[in-house]
Amino acid sequence: MRYVFPPAPTPSIPVSGTDSAFPVRRIWCVGRNYGEHTREMGGDPANDTPIFFAKPADAVTLDRTLPFPLHTTDLHHEIELAVAIGGQGVHVPAGKALDLVYGYALALDMTRRDLQAIAKKKGQPWDLAKGFDQSCPITPIRPVTEIGHPTQGRISLSVNGEIRQNGEIRDLIWPIPEIIATLSNFVELRPGDLILTGTPSGVGPVLAGDRLVGECDGVGRLEVAYATRD
């Protein structure tokens, strides 16, 4: 069998300190996983289970200068700890969930907030608000063998030198093992899956020309600048 045109390259992320790359299969994101962020978005932190949504695998980008996205006047930043899955499992117990983790990275869940607001009002999906081109800038992955499993540490984001988001990993409503275990009840997790674990409070607008710097203790530093689209 021949493809009718050459298939697109597999999206991948470098593994820190090696010449290897992590091939991305799927991107799952957890919504409203910090209490203060949940409240700033008008929600109740006392949800029974995590809220999941997806981005396409090719939303990941290693580019550090990005064009301003199409069809938005209200682009928002959301800095997140990302979990890179290296194992396979379904109905994974929380006590075994970390066995599936290959490593961790720092990522941005960029959001066209105006499109999301319209979708929410109409009861429509968030796909175009969350899954657009280059909507997931990310750092190289730090393997578990190098850094272990982060359970605490500062996660922050500044825009043009001003701190906007400043949170703590230990403040996740659903810790990483619970996120993995819950998601594995809905889909079979496989190597190459990425899970973005949620963003702290302080999300806000990004304009063309802005420079974003995200940091997460022990995981990495992410710098992104937005250029004006030609």
TrEMBL record:
Keywords: Hydrolase, Metal-binding
InterPro entries assigned: Fumarylacetoacetase-like_C, Fumarylacetoacetase_C_sf
GO molecular function: hydrolase activity
Residue ranges annotated for the Fumarylacetoacetase-like C-terminal domain, each copy included: 27-223
PANTHER family: ACYLPYRUVASE, FLUTATHIONE S-TRANSFERASE
Protein name: FAA hydrolase family protein
Organism (species): Acetobacter conturbans
